[in-house]
Amino acid sequence: MARLVIRGALVADGTGAPMSEGDVEIDGDRIRSVGQVGDGGGPSLDATGLVLAPGFIDTHSHDDYAVALHPDMQFKIMGGVTTVVVGNCGIGAAPRRWNEFFVRMVHGDAELPEWKDFQDYFDYMDASPASVNVAALAGHGTIREGVAGRGPADPSPAQIGEMSSLVSKALEAGCVGVSTGLVYEPGRYATTEEIAQVASPVGETGGVYASHIRDEGDRLIEAVDEAIAIGQAACAPVVISHLKVAGNRNFGKVSDALARIDRAGPTVTADHYPYTAGSTGLAAVVDGGIRNTSPETVVIASTKDHPEWHGRSLADLADGLGVVPSEVGGVVLEAEPNATVVLHMMSEEDVRTAVARPDIMVGSDGVPTLDGTPHPRLYGTFARVIGRYGRDLGLLTIEQAVHKMTGRPAHVFGLADRGVIRPGAIADLVLFDPQEIVDLGTYEAPHRFPAGIHGVWVNGTRVVEQGTHNGARPGQVLKRSA
Ligand code: ZN
Ligand code: CU
Protein backbone atom coordinates (compact mmCIF):
# COMPACT_ATOMS: atom_id res chain seq x y z
CA MET A 1 0.00 0.00 0.00
CA ALA A 2 1.20 3.33 -0.91
CA ARG A 3 1.23 6.89 0.21
CA LEU A 4 -1.42 9.23 -1.18
CA VAL A 5 -2.24 12.85 -0.40
CA ILE A 6 -5.84 13.93 -0.93
CA ARG A 7 -5.53 17.69 -1.45
CA GLY A 8 -7.81 20.60 -0.77
CA ALA A 9 -10.88 18.69 0.43
CA LEU A 10 -13.40 20.02 2.92
CA VAL A 11 -12.65 17.64 5.77
CA ALA A 12 -15.66 16.51 7.84
CA ASP A 13 -13.75 14.61 10.49
CA GLY A 14 -16.63 12.57 11.94
CA THR A 15 -16.71 14.34 15.32
CA GLY A 16 -19.31 16.89 14.22
CA ALA A 17 -16.72 19.72 14.37
CA PRO A 18 -16.92 22.37 11.61
CA MET A 19 -15.36 21.34 8.29
CA SER A 20 -12.16 22.96 7.20
CA GLU A 21 -10.24 22.83 3.97
CA GLY A 22 -7.09 20.76 4.14
CA ASP A 23 -5.02 17.84 2.93
CA VAL A 24 -5.18 14.28 4.22
CA GLU A 25 -2.18 12.01 3.83
CA ILE A 26 -2.75 8.25 3.70
CA ASP A 27 0.23 6.02 4.41
CA GLY A 28 -0.47 2.28 4.24
CA ASP A 29 -3.72 1.58 6.02
CA ARG A 30 -3.64 4.70 8.22
CA ILE A 31 -3.97 8.45 8.02
CA ARG A 32 -0.56 9.94 8.64
CA SER A 33 -1.33 13.64 8.69
CA VAL A 34 -4.15 16.12 8.30
CA GLY A 35 -3.89 19.82 7.47
CA GLN A 36 -1.21 21.26 5.23
CA VAL A 37 0.79 18.38 3.80
CA GLY A 38 4.00 19.21 1.95
CA ASP A 39 4.78 17.82 -1.47
CA GLY A 40 6.75 14.63 -0.79
CA GLY A 41 6.74 13.86 -4.50
CA GLY A 42 4.26 11.00 -4.18
CA PRO A 43 0.86 10.66 -5.77
CA SER A 44 -1.81 13.18 -4.89
CA LEU A 45 -5.44 13.70 -5.71
CA ASP A 46 -7.05 17.09 -6.18
CA ALA A 47 -10.25 17.10 -4.11
CA THR A 48 -11.10 20.79 -4.35
CA GLY A 49 -14.80 21.39 -3.74
CA LEU A 50 -15.40 17.86 -2.45
CA VAL A 51 -16.04 16.66 1.11
CA LEU A 52 -13.76 14.03 2.62
CA ALA A 53 -15.39 12.09 5.48
CA PRO A 54 -14.72 8.88 7.37
CA GLY A 55 -16.32 5.90 5.61
CA PHE A 56 -19.95 5.38 6.60
CA ILE A 57 -20.73 2.69 9.16
CA ASP A 58 -23.96 0.82 8.44
CA THR A 59 -24.96 0.01 12.02
CA HIS A 60 -27.94 -2.10 11.05
CA SER A 61 -27.38 -4.54 8.22
CA HIS A 62 -28.43 -8.04 7.26
CA ASP A 63 -25.33 -8.64 5.15
CA ASP A 64 -24.12 -11.64 7.20
CA TYR A 65 -24.06 -13.90 4.14
CA ALA A 66 -23.93 -11.20 1.47
CA VAL A 67 -20.34 -10.39 2.45
CA ALA A 68 -19.48 -13.99 1.49
CA LEU A 69 -21.79 -14.38 -1.51
CA HIS A 70 -21.32 -10.90 -3.00
CA PRO A 71 -17.95 -9.86 -1.58
CA ASP A 72 -17.68 -6.76 -3.74
CA MET A 73 -20.70 -5.42 -1.78
CA GLN A 74 -21.47 -2.85 -4.47
CA PHE A 75 -24.89 -2.03 -3.05
CA LYS A 76 -23.18 -0.67 0.05
CA ILE A 77 -19.74 0.59 -0.91
CA MET A 78 -20.93 2.50 -3.98
CA GLY A 79 -22.91 4.58 -1.48
CA GLY A 80 -19.90 5.27 0.75
CA VAL A 81 -20.33 2.47 3.31
CA THR A 82 -17.00 1.04 4.49
CA THR A 83 -18.22 -1.05 7.46
CA VAL A 84 -21.35 -3.15 7.90
CA VAL A 85 -22.56 -4.32 11.31
CA VAL A 86 -24.22 -7.68 10.62
CA GLY A 87 -26.32 -9.91 12.86
CA ASN A 88 -29.21 -7.58 13.60
CA CYS A 89 -32.81 -8.37 14.59
CA GLY A 90 -31.79 -11.54 16.43
CA ILE A 91 -30.50 -13.17 13.23
CA GLY A 92 -26.78 -13.98 13.54
CA ALA A 93 -24.28 -15.38 11.05
CA ALA A 94 -23.42 -18.40 13.18
CA PRO A 95 -24.04 -21.19 13.73
CA ARG A 96 -24.98 -21.32 10.04
CA ARG A 97 -27.13 -24.46 10.32
CA TRP A 98 -29.48 -22.70 12.77
CA ASN A 99 -30.27 -20.06 10.19
CA GLU A 100 -31.82 -21.94 7.31
CA PHE A 101 -34.99 -19.85 7.19
CA PHE A 102 -33.21 -16.53 6.93
CA VAL A 103 -30.61 -17.75 4.43
CA ARG A 104 -33.27 -19.10 2.09
CA MET A 105 -35.43 -16.02 2.45
CA VAL A 106 -32.64 -13.69 1.39
CA HIS A 107 -30.39 -15.85 -0.77
CA GLY A 108 -32.61 -18.59 -2.23
CA ASP A 109 -30.71 -21.78 -3.03
CA ALA A 110 -27.23 -20.25 -2.87
CA GLU A 111 -24.52 -22.50 -1.43
CA LEU A 112 -22.82 -21.25 1.69
CA PRO A 113 -20.11 -22.61 3.96
CA GLU A 114 -21.12 -24.11 7.29
CA TRP A 115 -19.87 -21.79 10.04
CA LYS A 116 -20.11 -23.71 13.29
CA ASP A 117 -19.43 -20.63 15.40
CA PHE A 118 -18.28 -17.02 15.15
CA GLN A 119 -14.62 -17.94 15.25
CA ASP A 120 -15.25 -19.92 12.07
CA TYR A 121 -17.16 -17.06 10.50
CA PHE A 122 -14.42 -14.55 11.28
CA ASP A 123 -11.73 -16.94 9.99
CA TYR A 124 -13.68 -17.31 6.76
CA MET A 125 -14.03 -13.54 6.33
CA ASP A 126 -10.33 -13.01 7.10
CA ALA A 127 -9.39 -15.58 4.45
CA SER A 128 -11.92 -14.32 1.85
CA PRO A 129 -12.33 -10.63 2.58
CA ALA A 130 -15.13 -8.47 1.23
CA SER A 131 -14.71 -4.93 -0.07
CA VAL A 132 -16.12 -3.62 3.22
CA ASN A 133 -15.23 -4.27 6.86
CA VAL A 134 -17.52 -6.52 8.89
CA ALA A 135 -18.46 -6.27 12.56
CA ALA A 136 -20.90 -8.86 13.90
CA LEU A 137 -23.56 -9.10 16.55
CA ALA A 138 -24.51 -12.51 17.90
CA GLY A 139 -28.21 -13.21 17.27
CA HIS A 140 -30.44 -14.28 20.14
CA GLY A 141 -33.09 -15.70 17.75
CA THR A 142 -30.55 -17.88 15.95
CA ILE A 143 -29.10 -19.16 19.21
CA ARG A 144 -32.56 -19.80 20.68
CA GLU A 145 -33.60 -21.69 17.57
CA GLY A 146 -30.60 -23.98 17.94
CA VAL A 147 -31.10 -24.56 21.66
CA ALA A 148 -34.89 -24.61 22.04
CA GLY A 149 -36.33 -24.81 18.51
CA ARG A 150 -38.22 -22.32 16.39
CA GLY A 151 -41.56 -22.69 18.15
CA PRO A 152 -43.02 -21.26 21.38
CA ALA A 153 -40.79 -23.17 23.77
CA ASP A 154 -40.31 -22.23 27.40
CA PRO A 155 -36.59 -22.88 27.83
CA SER A 156 -35.33 -24.56 30.98
CA PRO A 157 -32.73 -22.85 33.18
CA ALA A 158 -30.15 -25.19 31.66
CA GLN A 159 -31.14 -24.10 28.13
CA ILE A 160 -30.99 -20.43 29.12
CA GLY A 161 -27.51 -21.14 30.53
CA GLU A 162 -26.53 -22.75 27.24
CA MET A 163 -27.74 -19.73 25.25
CA SER A 164 -25.85 -17.40 27.54
CA SER A 165 -22.62 -19.38 27.16
CA LEU A 166 -23.01 -19.31 23.37
CA VAL A 167 -23.25 -15.52 23.62
CA SER A 168 -20.09 -15.50 25.79
CA LYS A 169 -18.23 -17.54 23.19
CA ALA A 170 -19.40 -15.23 20.41
CA LEU A 171 -18.16 -12.18 22.34
CA GLU A 172 -14.82 -13.87 23.03
CA ALA A 173 -14.47 -14.55 19.31
CA GLY A 174 -14.93 -10.83 18.65
CA CYS A 175 -18.64 -10.06 18.33
CA VAL A 176 -19.59 -6.48 19.18
CA GLY A 177 -22.72 -7.43 21.13
CA VAL A 178 -25.94 -9.41 20.90
CA SER A 179 -29.17 -8.60 19.07
CA THR A 180 -32.80 -9.63 19.50
CA GLY A 181 -35.77 -9.68 17.14
CA LEU A 182 -38.81 -9.74 19.40
CA VAL A 183 -41.46 -9.83 16.65
CA TYR A 184 -39.91 -12.82 14.87
CA GLU A 185 -39.86 -16.52 15.55
CA PRO A 186 -38.47 -17.61 17.91
CA GLY A 187 -37.34 -14.36 19.60
CA ARG A 188 -40.92 -13.26 20.19
CA TYR A 189 -41.44 -16.12 22.65
CA ALA A 190 -38.64 -14.97 24.94
CA THR A 191 -39.50 -13.22 28.19
CA THR A 192 -37.77 -10.06 29.41
CA GLU A 193 -35.99 -12.13 32.09
CA GLU A 194 -34.73 -14.71 29.61
CA ILE A 195 -33.29 -12.02 27.36
CA ALA A 196 -31.59 -10.23 30.27
CA GLN A 197 -29.90 -13.49 31.27
CA VAL A 198 -28.86 -14.39 27.75
CA ALA A 199 -27.49 -10.85 27.21
CA SER A 200 -25.68 -10.68 30.55
CA PRO A 201 -22.24 -11.70 29.13
CA VAL A 202 -22.34 -8.39 27.23
CA GLY A 203 -22.27 -6.57 30.56
CA GLU A 204 -19.21 -8.55 31.60
CA THR A 205 -17.09 -8.37 28.45
CA GLY A 206 -18.35 -5.25 26.65
CA GLY A 207 -20.53 -4.80 23.61
CA VAL A 208 -24.08 -3.62 23.02
CA TYR A 209 -27.57 -5.00 23.38
CA ALA A 210 -29.28 -4.16 20.04
CA SER A 211 -32.98 -4.86 19.78
CA HIS A 212 -35.73 -4.97 17.22
CA ILE A 213 -38.17 -4.26 20.02
CA ARG A 214 -41.39 -6.13 20.74
CA ASP A 215 -43.76 -3.55 19.31
CA GLU A 216 -43.29 -0.67 16.87
CA GLY A 217 -46.93 0.41 16.90
CA ASP A 218 -49.50 0.88 19.67
CA ARG A 219 -47.12 -0.30 22.39
CA LEU A 220 -43.94 1.38 21.14
CA ILE A 221 -43.18 3.12 24.43
CA GLU A 222 -43.63 -0.04 26.51
CA ALA A 223 -41.32 -1.86 24.09
CA VAL A 224 -38.65 0.86 24.39
CA ASP A 225 -38.95 0.59 28.17
CA GLU A 226 -38.46 -3.18 27.99
CA ALA A 227 -35.24 -2.75 25.98
CA ILE A 228 -33.96 -0.21 28.50
CA ALA A 229 -34.83 -2.56 31.39
CA ILE A 230 -32.97 -5.43 29.70
CA GLY A 231 -29.93 -3.22 29.24
CA GLN A 232 -30.03 -2.25 32.91
CA ALA A 233 -30.43 -5.84 34.08
CA ALA A 234 -27.60 -7.03 31.82
CA CYS A 235 -25.46 -3.93 32.53
CA ALA A 236 -25.20 -3.42 28.75
CA PRO A 237 -25.52 -0.33 26.56
CA VAL A 238 -28.71 -0.43 24.47
CA VAL A 239 -29.26 0.25 20.78
CA ILE A 240 -32.95 0.43 19.77
CA SER A 241 -32.95 -0.84 16.20
CA HIS A 242 -34.59 1.06 13.33
CA LEU A 243 -36.46 3.47 15.58
CA LYS A 244 -39.87 4.08 14.03
CA VAL A 245 -43.59 3.81 14.61
CA ALA A 246 -46.22 2.22 12.38
CA GLY A 247 -49.92 2.96 12.05
CA ASN A 248 -51.65 6.33 11.59
CA ARG A 249 -52.92 6.56 15.15
CA ASN A 250 -49.36 6.25 16.44
CA PHE A 251 -47.77 8.90 14.24
CA GLY A 252 -45.72 11.35 16.26
CA LYS A 253 -44.64 8.82 18.90
CA VAL A 254 -41.01 8.74 17.73
CA SER A 255 -40.43 11.91 19.73
CA ASP A 256 -41.93 10.24 22.83
CA ALA A 257 -39.61 7.27 22.30
CA LEU A 258 -36.62 9.62 21.97
CA ALA A 259 -37.63 11.29 25.23
CA ARG A 260 -37.51 7.88 26.98
CA ILE A 261 -34.14 7.15 25.40
CA ASP A 262 -32.77 10.51 26.51
CA ARG A 263 -34.07 10.08 30.04
CA ALA A 264 -32.39 6.67 30.31
CA GLY A 265 -28.98 8.32 29.90
CA PRO A 266 -26.02 8.14 27.55
CA THR A 267 -25.82 4.33 27.39
CA VAL A 268 -29.13 4.09 25.51
CA THR A 269 -29.35 5.09 21.87
CA ALA A 270 -30.91 4.06 18.55
CA ASP A 271 -30.41 3.72 14.83
CA HIS A 272 -32.88 4.59 12.07
CA TYR A 273 -33.28 4.65 8.30
CA PRO A 274 -34.60 7.62 6.29
CA TYR A 275 -37.71 6.17 4.62
CA THR A 276 -41.42 5.89 5.45
CA ALA A 277 -41.58 2.24 4.37
CA GLY A 278 -40.14 -0.79 6.17
CA SER A 279 -39.24 -4.23 4.85
CA THR A 280 -39.25 -7.75 6.24
CA GLY A 281 -40.37 -11.32 5.56
CA LEU A 282 -44.01 -11.83 4.57
CA ALA A 283 -44.21 -14.60 7.20
CA ALA A 284 -43.87 -12.07 10.03
CA VAL A 285 -46.74 -10.02 8.58
CA VAL A 286 -49.07 -12.99 8.14
CA ASP A 287 -48.30 -14.56 11.54
CA GLY A 288 -49.05 -11.26 13.29
CA GLY A 289 -45.51 -10.47 14.48
CA ILE A 290 -45.66 -7.26 12.41
CA ARG A 291 -48.91 -5.33 12.86
CA ASN A 292 -50.44 -2.13 11.44
CA THR A 293 -50.44 -3.33 7.85
CA SER A 294 -53.16 -3.70 5.23
CA PRO A 295 -53.14 -5.44 1.82
CA GLU A 296 -52.71 -2.04 0.11
CA THR A 297 -49.57 -1.20 2.08
CA VAL A 298 -47.73 -4.53 1.68
CA VAL A 299 -45.70 -4.83 -1.56
CA ILE A 300 -43.87 -7.99 -2.62
CA ALA A 301 -40.09 -7.44 -2.79
CA SER A 302 -38.71 -10.91 -3.54
CA THR A 303 -39.93 -14.47 -4.15
CA LYS A 304 -38.41 -17.72 -5.35
CA ASP A 305 -40.59 -18.49 -8.38
CA HIS A 306 -42.88 -15.48 -8.90
CA PRO A 307 -40.86 -12.56 -10.25
CA GLU A 308 -44.08 -11.24 -11.82
CA TRP A 309 -45.29 -10.46 -8.28
CA HIS A 310 -42.31 -8.25 -7.44
CA GLY A 311 -43.33 -4.65 -6.88
CA ARG A 312 -47.05 -5.46 -6.59
CA SER A 313 -49.18 -4.96 -3.49
CA LEU A 314 -51.15 -7.74 -1.84
CA ALA A 315 -54.37 -5.86 -2.67
CA ASP A 316 -53.35 -5.81 -6.31
CA LEU A 317 -52.50 -9.53 -6.25
CA ALA A 318 -55.82 -10.41 -4.57
CA ASP A 319 -57.74 -9.40 -7.72
CA GLY A 320 -55.57 -11.50 -10.00
CA LEU A 321 -55.60 -14.52 -7.69
CA GLY A 322 -59.35 -14.31 -7.13
CA VAL A 323 -59.12 -14.21 -3.32
CA VAL A 324 -60.48 -11.70 -0.84
CA PRO A 325 -57.96 -9.14 0.47
CA SER A 326 -58.09 -10.51 4.02
CA GLU A 327 -56.84 -13.89 2.79
CA VAL A 328 -54.35 -12.89 0.13
CA GLY A 329 -51.39 -12.73 2.54
CA GLY A 330 -51.89 -16.37 3.55
CA VAL A 331 -52.36 -17.50 -0.06
CA VAL A 332 -49.19 -15.76 -1.23
CA LEU A 333 -47.23 -17.07 1.75
CA GLU A 334 -48.32 -20.63 1.01
CA ALA A 335 -46.97 -20.32 -2.52
CA GLU A 336 -43.85 -18.40 -1.41
CA PRO A 337 -42.93 -19.12 2.23
CA ASN A 338 -39.73 -17.08 1.86
CA ALA A 339 -41.23 -13.98 0.24
CA THR A 340 -39.99 -10.61 1.46
CA VAL A 341 -42.09 -7.44 1.42
CA VAL A 342 -41.89 -3.65 1.58
CA LEU A 343 -44.37 -2.13 4.07
CA HIS A 344 -45.63 1.43 3.63
CA MET A 345 -46.57 2.24 7.20
CA MET A 346 -44.69 5.18 8.75
CA SER A 347 -45.02 8.97 8.66
CA GLU A 348 -42.61 11.48 7.15
CA GLU A 349 -42.85 13.54 10.35
CA ASP A 350 -41.44 10.66 12.44
CA VAL A 351 -38.67 10.04 9.92
CA ARG A 352 -37.68 13.71 10.17
CA THR A 353 -37.72 13.59 13.97
CA ALA A 354 -35.16 10.76 13.99
CA VAL A 355 -33.06 12.04 11.10
CA ALA A 356 -32.60 15.46 12.70
CA ARG A 357 -30.81 13.99 15.73
CA PRO A 358 -27.01 13.91 15.19
CA ASP A 359 -26.63 11.29 17.96
CA ILE A 360 -29.13 8.80 16.48
CA MET A 361 -27.14 6.48 14.22
CA VAL A 362 -27.95 5.46 10.66
CA GLY A 363 -28.60 1.82 9.77
CA SER A 364 -29.93 0.78 6.39
CA ASP A 365 -31.72 -2.39 7.55
CA GLY A 366 -31.37 -3.33 3.88
CA VAL A 367 -32.31 -6.86 2.88
CA PRO A 368 -29.83 -7.96 0.17
CA THR A 369 -32.31 -9.80 -2.08
CA LEU A 370 -30.45 -8.78 -5.21
CA ASP A 371 -32.73 -10.72 -7.61
CA GLY A 372 -35.90 -9.04 -6.42
CA THR A 373 -37.17 -5.51 -5.90
CA PRO A 374 -35.66 -4.79 -2.48
CA HIS A 375 -36.37 -1.70 -0.43
CA PRO A 376 -34.20 1.12 -1.89
CA ARG A 377 -32.63 1.69 1.53
CA LEU A 378 -30.25 -1.15 0.65
CA TYR A 379 -28.42 1.25 -1.68
CA GLY A 380 -29.44 4.78 -0.80
CA THR A 381 -29.69 5.23 2.97
CA PHE A 382 -26.54 7.27 3.65
CA ALA A 383 -26.62 9.50 0.58
CA ARG A 384 -30.29 10.19 1.31
CA VAL A 385 -29.59 11.38 4.86
CA ILE A 386 -26.89 13.79 3.65
CA GLY A 387 -28.46 14.93 0.37
CA ARG A 388 -32.18 14.90 0.90
CA TYR A 389 -32.57 15.45 4.65
CA GLY A 390 -29.39 17.44 5.24
CA ARG A 391 -28.82 19.60 2.17
CA ASP A 392 -32.29 19.80 0.58
CA LEU A 393 -34.49 19.93 3.70
CA GLY A 394 -31.96 21.58 6.00
CA LEU A 395 -32.51 19.21 8.95
CA LEU A 396 -28.79 18.55 9.48
CA THR A 397 -25.49 20.14 8.60
CA ILE A 398 -23.05 18.01 6.62
CA GLU A 399 -20.94 17.72 9.77
CA GLN A 400 -23.89 16.43 11.81
CA ALA A 401 -25.00 14.00 9.11
CA VAL A 402 -21.46 12.63 8.80
CA HIS A 403 -21.11 12.34 12.58
CA LYS A 404 -24.26 10.23 12.96
CA MET A 405 -22.94 7.74 10.41
CA THR A 406 -19.24 7.68 11.43
CA GLY A 407 -17.86 8.98 14.74
CA ARG A 408 -21.02 8.24 16.68
CA PRO A 409 -21.39 4.55 15.69
CA ALA A 410 -17.62 3.91 16.01
CA HIS A 411 -17.93 5.10 19.61
CA VAL A 412 -21.11 3.10 20.38
CA PHE A 413 -19.77 -0.14 18.88
CA GLY A 414 -16.23 0.29 20.24
CA LEU A 415 -14.51 0.35 16.84
CA ALA A 416 -11.13 1.84 17.74
CA ASP A 417 -9.50 4.30 15.31
CA ARG A 418 -12.54 4.23 13.00
CA GLY A 419 -15.17 6.82 12.22
CA VAL A 420 -12.80 9.78 12.52
CA ILE A 421 -10.23 11.58 10.39
CA ARG A 422 -7.15 12.32 12.45
CA PRO A 423 -3.49 11.29 12.37
CA GLY A 424 -3.19 7.63 13.34
CA ALA A 425 -6.78 6.65 12.49
CA ILE A 426 -7.45 3.90 9.97
CA ALA A 427 -8.00 5.25 6.45
CA ASP A 428 -11.64 4.29 5.84
CA LEU A 429 -12.68 7.31 3.77
CA VAL A 430 -15.35 8.59 1.42
CA LEU A 431 -14.98 11.54 -0.94
CA PHE A 432 -18.24 13.07 -2.11
CA ASP A 433 -19.66 16.11 -3.88
CA PRO A 434 -21.85 17.99 -1.38
CA GLN A 435 -23.96 19.48 -4.17
CA GLU A 436 -24.58 16.20 -5.96
CA ILE A 437 -24.82 13.54 -3.30
CA VAL A 438 -28.29 11.94 -3.19
CA ASP A 439 -29.96 8.55 -3.41
CA LEU A 440 -31.35 7.61 -6.83
CA GLY A 441 -33.16 4.33 -6.18
CA THR A 442 -36.95 4.23 -5.93
CA TYR A 443 -39.39 1.61 -4.66
CA GLU A 444 -40.04 0.69 -8.30
CA ALA A 445 -36.38 0.73 -9.38
CA PRO A 446 -34.20 0.24 -6.30
CA HIS A 447 -31.02 -1.10 -7.90
CA ARG A 448 -29.31 2.27 -8.39
CA PHE A 449 -26.15 3.58 -6.83
CA PRO A 450 -26.32 7.03 -5.24
CA ALA A 451 -25.00 10.09 -7.07
CA GLY A 452 -22.04 12.18 -5.98
CA ILE A 453 -19.71 9.54 -4.48
CA HIS A 454 -16.28 10.19 -6.04
CA GLY A 455 -14.05 7.87 -4.07
CA VAL A 456 -14.08 5.27 -1.29
CA TRP A 457 -11.07 3.86 0.57
CA VAL A 458 -11.15 0.91 2.96
CA ASN A 459 -8.13 0.33 5.22
CA GLY A 460 -6.13 2.69 3.01
CA THR A 461 -6.95 0.90 -0.25
CA ARG A 462 -9.09 2.61 -2.84
CA VAL A 463 -12.18 0.63 -3.89
CA VAL A 464 -14.41 3.17 -5.65
CA GLU A 465 -12.88 5.43 -8.33
CA GLN A 466 -15.00 7.95 -10.26
CA GLY A 467 -18.15 6.04 -9.52
CA THR A 468 -16.72 2.63 -10.45
CA HIS A 469 -15.82 -0.34 -8.24
CA ASN A 470 -12.24 -1.41 -9.03
CA GLY A 471 -12.55 -4.94 -7.63
CA ALA A 472 -10.41 -4.42 -4.53
CA ARG A 473 -11.43 -6.33 -1.40
CA PRO A 474 -9.48 -4.81 1.49
CA GLY A 475 -12.18 -5.37 4.15
CA GLN A 476 -11.34 -6.70 7.59
CA VAL A 477 -13.21 -8.24 10.50
CA LEU A 478 -13.62 -5.52 13.13
CA LYS A 479 -13.70 -6.62 16.72
CA ARG A 480 -14.64 -4.60 19.73
CA SER A 481 -11.78 -2.81 21.44
CA ALA A 482 -11.88 -3.13 25.22
ZN1 ZN B 1 -35.62 -5.48 12.57
CU1 CU C 1 -33.16 -5.51 10.80
Q: Compute the number of strand runs.
A: 21
Radius of gyration: 21 Å
Average pLDDT over all residues: 96
Which hetero compounds are present in the coordinates?
zinc ion, copper (II) ion
Beta-strand fraction estimate: 15-25%
The shape, in one word, is: globular
Biggest sheet character = 9 strands, mixed
Helical percentage: 25-40%
| SS content category | alpha/beta
Low-confidence region ranges = none
**What is the CA–CA distance across the termini?**
28 Å
The helix tally amounts to 16
List the helices and strands and how they pair.
Elements: E1 3-11, E2 20-27, E3 30-35, E4 44-46, E5 51-54, E6 56-58, H1 66-69, H2 74-77, E7 81-86, H3 100-107, H4 118-127, E8 133-136, E9 138-139, H5 140-148, H6 157-173, E10 177-181, H7 192-205, E11 208-212, H8 220-234, E12 238-240, H9 253-264, E13 268-272, E14 277-281, H10 282-286, E15 298-302, H11 314-321, H12 325-335, E16 340-344, H13 348-355, E17 361-362, H14 377-392, H15 398-405, H16 407-412, E18 429-432, E19 453-458, E20 461-465, E21 468-469
Helix pairs in contact: 5-6, 6-7, 7-8, 8-9, 9-13, 11-12, 14-15
Task: Describe it.
- This protein is an alpha/beta fold and 482 residues long.
- Helix content is 32%, strand content 20%.
- The protein contains 16 helices and 21 strands.
- The protein has helices spanning 66-69, 74-77, 100-107, 118-127, 140-148, 157-173, 192-205, 220-234, 253-264, 282-286, 314-321, 325-335, 348-355, 377-392, 398-405, 407-412; strands at residues 3-11, 20-27, 30-35, 44-46, 51-54, 56-58, 81-86, 133-136, 138-139, 177-181, 208-212, 238-240, 268-272, 277-281, 298-302, 340-344, 361-362, 429-432, 453-458, 461-465, 468-469.
- The strands form 4 sheets. Strands 1, 2, 3, 4, 5, 18, 19, 20 and 21 form a 9-stranded mixed β-sheet that branches. Strands 9-10-11-12-13-17 form a 6-stranded parallel β-sheet.
- Strand 10 (177-181), helix 7 and strand 11 (208-212) form a beta-alpha-beta unit.
- It is globular, with a radius of gyration of 21 Å.
- Bound molecules: zinc ion and copper (II) ion.
- Zinc ion (ZN) binds at residues 89, 181, 212, 241-242.
